[in-house]
Each structure stands twice: as C-alpha cells, then as structure tokens.
Amino acid sequence: MADVVVLGAGVSGHTAALHLSRLLPKGNTVTVVSPNADWNWIPSNIWVGVGKMPAKSVLFPLEPVYRKKRIRFLQAAATAIWPQGDDQSGRPSVDVVHTGSGRQGETERVGYDYLINATGPQLRFHMTSGLGPDEGHTVSVCTASHAVEAAEQLKATIERLKAGEPQTLVVGMGHGTCTCEGAAFEYVFNVDHELREAGVRDRARLVYLTNEAALGDFGVDGMTFEERGFQTTSELWTGSLFRERGVEAILGAHVNAVEEGVIRYETLDGEGHTLDFDFAMLLPPFGGVGLTAYDRGGADITEELFAPSGFMKVDADYTPKPYEEWRAEDWPKTYQAVGYDNIWAVGIAFAPPHQISRPRTSANGTLIAPAPPRTGMPSGVMGKTAALSIVDRIKHGSAAPNHEASMADMGAACVASAGAGLRTGSAAAMTMMPVVPDYSRYPTGRDLKDTRGEIGLGGHWVKLMLHHLFLHKAKGRLGWQFIPE
Ligand SMILES: Cc1cc2nc3c(=O)[nH]c(=O)nc-3n(C[C@H](O)[C@H](O)[C@H](O)COP(=O)(O)OP(=O)(O)OC[C@H]3O[C@@H](n4cnc5c(N)ncnc54)[C@H](O)[C@@H]3O)c2cc1C
After folding, report:
1. CA of 330 to the centre of ligand 1 (A)
2. Atom 53 (ligand 1): residue with closest C-alpha?
3. Ligand 1 geometric centre to CA of 288 (Å)
4. If you measure from the C-alpha of residue 197 to the centroid of ligand 1, how many angstroms do you get, rounded to a whole number?
C-alpha cells in the first residue's frame, strides 16, 4: 500500500489526482496539497477579464470533489521536499504550511511514497518594478481575482472613452522573458471586441506590447500553416488579424519599469522608450514556486533538484548547447525527477531543457527571449502520464516502465474567442502539432495537417465547448475520464 502526494491542484495536478483515485486499488492513499480552496479553469479567465463571465463560472470548491473521490485535501502550500527522509525517519516527506481557515500558518511534514510536483508558476511580478495588480500599476488575468479587477478597470476605461476622453490600452508582456503570449493575444482580441461593442473603438489606441521578435512567435518560434496547397506563417496570420482590427504591435520589447500611466521599455536595438497608458494588462514572467530540498542530514540540495528558474529538473537533456543544436529529443518524456525515481514534475513545474523561440539579447545585452509555453492540454496529459506510471509501479512493482508523453509529440491549442452566446462570437483559433518543433520529421518543424490557424464562429464554439467540458471533467462528473486532457 502506498501514499501518493500531489502538490498543486491546477490543470496538471488535479488531472493526476483524479486518475490516481480512479485507478489505484483501495488501501492506497492520494493526498493533494494546494493553497487555494477553489479550482480555476484559467483559460476562461480571459472572459472574466473583460466582464463577459463572472468569476464563479470559472471556479468551484475542490473539497466536495475530493471528498467524493476519496482524495485527502490539505489546503496548504508546500515549502520543502525531503526526498531521502529526515534525521528522524528515512521516509521521504514534504513540508507544508496550511492556508485554510482555522489552520492558517500551521506547519506539517507529510510523508509520501510517490510525489508529483504540479505547483505551476510563481507569478513573478516583482521582476519588473511597478508591474502587477498588488503593488503595481497594471492588471493581470492570471487568476480569477486578477481578472475581476481587470474587468473593472476595463469598464472604467470604456466609461472614460464614452465620455469622449481618448484612452491608450496596452496588452502584452511585462518582461523580456515572459511566456504565455497566447493568453495576451487572446486578451487583446477580446478587448478589441469589447471596445467595438461599446461603440468606442475609434477613440481608443490599442497596443500589443510583446517580447516576441516577430508577431505570431508565441514562444514556439512561430508556425507554418498550409491552406489549399499554399503555405503561410503565423506571423502573416497574426499581422493580418491585428491590421484588420487596428491593433498596433511593439515587438522585441523588455519592460524595465511601470510607473503611474507610463511603461518604460527597451527594444532589441537597445533603444529605450516610454509608452503612456490608461489601461494595461501585462503578464508577469513565470518561475518555479520556490520549493527547497534537503538531504537526510538537513543539507540544502535544492540545486540538485531544481534549475535556477525554480522549476524541477526532470528526464530532459539540460546540456548547454547553442540554440541551433537543440533537438526535439532533448525534451522530457517521463517527467521523472533527476536522481529520484519516485518524484515527477508536470505542467509548468518542470524545467524546460531549452528555448523553443530563438533567444535574443538587445544591443545593451538585455535578454529578450519568450520562454517555452506549457499550455493546458500538454499539462493535463503530463499529469495523467505521471499518474499512470505511479499506478503501474504500485500494481506491478518497481520494474514497471514509466509512461511517456513528450511535448515533441503533443499538440496544443490557443483559441482567442471574443463575444458570448452561440451566434455572435468569433474566434481566431490556432492548433499546433507538435508543440516542440521536430525538423527531423517535418520540413516546417510541425505536421501541416494538424497545425492550423482559422478565424470564425467555429473556433468560438470550440472554446465554449471546452469551457463546459473541462469544468465537467474537473468536477469528476459522470464519464469525466472519457473527456481527453
Ligand atoms: C490567462 C491565461 C489564459 C490561458 N489560456 C490557455 C488556453 O486557451 N489554452 C491552453 O492550453 N492553455 C492556456 N493557458 C495556460 C494554462 O492555464 C496552463 O498551461 C495550465 O494552467 C498549467 O497547468 P499547471 O498544472 O502546470 O499549473 P496551474 O494550473 O497554474 O496549477 C498550479 C497549482 O499549484 C498550486 N500551487 C502553487 N504553489 C503551490 C505550493 N507551494 N504548494 C502546492 N501547490 C501550489 C496552485 O495554487 C495551483 O493549484 C492560459 C494561461 C493563462 C494565465
């Protein structure tokens, strides 16, 4: 009988926990450690962030779901891993600090036989002075509560536009090393739609400020699409969408600082610029959540388990190489941690081996390099993959092989859908296969059959359907396991 502990109840951790509870024989335990009481379907935060959806439509309490599935839920944040046990016991364990009401601040050491680290990103607003909703001057859509505040500020901006005041709205990346450009692209598309619906688009300047050197890069070095035998690029596709909607793009930008109403940024040519704004939604750079690790004697072994970014090192090839020499097979397949065959890191929590988008430095030596995205679908697949490996180990012994799922074999989707309802929405939908380009298999790095960019009502339906299907799945309702990750 084994105890499995999952750190994080987001897309990857929650998926792992549901599959573990479904597949593990009685007597084994599954414990989820996560600081928030609610689950959040993050992709729909975009709609919350423009006021199209209330926060309650993207959140639900985890405790009743876990009670039904016989999963133990500790509302707590993990702080440290003892993969060899501590001086009292040889049992591997994790330190947690409780965050739930009644136990706030209480610490506990939780033993495990198998551990999944699915702690997602730390939102590193502090890396850019003045960035972010708490201490800065910009809003975010990374959490449901951030998105509610973004919607309020957007509404106030639209009111000022209605009163005849011209306004500048900026959407994009708050640092040169940000990832998740797809989310900013979705948000700018939605903001444009809201401004048009309110009849104030002509008075608004809408700017997309990004660390991407070219439009349509999305942190994955862009995509090639094929339409009736003709090839085009995601750069042309995105450029056309922006031109049609009058969205200005500022490319290759690293935001140095945000002050009240002013963004200070540097571009790849080394020039410094300022941009005055009335409303800005800028995403923060991501890092690991800051877990530490100790050996049995209490010596700090954090560097053995984690990359400097704070993400956990797994079965990837981390050998430093020039960008041109990186290969698809350098990407991890099993997500097993380095040195410990009972720990896995999935979703955003694992350390990518290298950039997918070509990293660049400005003429001043500032790194301006979109980090590799680890989007929802791959995160869910990784969570399931780790869960299946653990189930096989428990059922068939330690020789059972790991399950595999490389991002060089997995697809991803980004659907920028604006509007609500079944007849009035419109979406710019991109799918790519695989996420990590493999030039040894495909001349353009990706399978042209499954790498597409489309615009229209169909994509909007897909996004609405995904919203409802994924909430159904995450609630563990009838047939949830048949809905793909
Ligand atoms: C605005 C936005 C829109 C997006 N839209 C899309 C989209 O359209 N399509 C798509 O595929 N992807 C999209 N993504 C990306 C997608 O949300 C992520 O890929 C996905 O959530 C990653 O899953 P994860 O499990 O790694 O992290 P998360 O889902 O962020 O989960 C991390 C979990 O760990 C918990 N945690 C944090 N710290 C600790 C700790 N110390 N101990 C224990 N638990 C901890 C968190 O509370 C959370 O429960 C979007 C992202 C954003 C921000």
Report:
1. 24
2. 142
3. 12
4. 30
Q: How crowded is residue 245: how many other Cβ atoms within 10 Å of its Cβ?
A: 18
Phi and psi torsions of 316, nearest 5°: -105, 165
DSSP string, 114-136: EEEE----EE-GGGSBT-STTTS
The widest CA-to-CA distance across the chain, in whole angstroms, is: 70
**pLDDT the model gives residue 363:** 93
Q: Which residues contact 347 (CB under 8 A, 6 or more apart)?
A: 8, 10, 11, 12, 13, 118, 120, 374, 378, 379, 382, 383
**Ligand 1: distance of its center to the CA of 431 in Å?**
19
- SS3 (DSSP) at 335: coil
Class of domain 3-123+289-363+371-396: alpha beta
Q: Which of 19, 34, 415 to mutate to test the pocket of ligand 1 (most atoms within 8 A of CB)?
A: 34
CA dihedral of residues 315, 287, 53, 380 (deg, nearest 10): 10
Domain ranges in the chain?
3-123+289-363+371-396
Q: DSSP assignment of 364-423, as one string?
A: T--EE-PPPP--HHHHHHHHHHHHHHHHHHHHH-TTSPPP---TTT--EEEEEEES-SSS
**Cα-to-centroid distance, 137 and ligand 1 (Å):** 23
Q: What is the mean pLDDT of residues 169-187?
A: 96
Written as one letter, the residue type at 225 is F
What residue's CA is closest to ligand 1, atom 28? 10
User: Does position 98 have pLDDT exceeding 90, yes or no?
Assistant: yes
Ligand 1 atom closest to 283 (CA): 53
Global pTM exceeds 0.90: yes
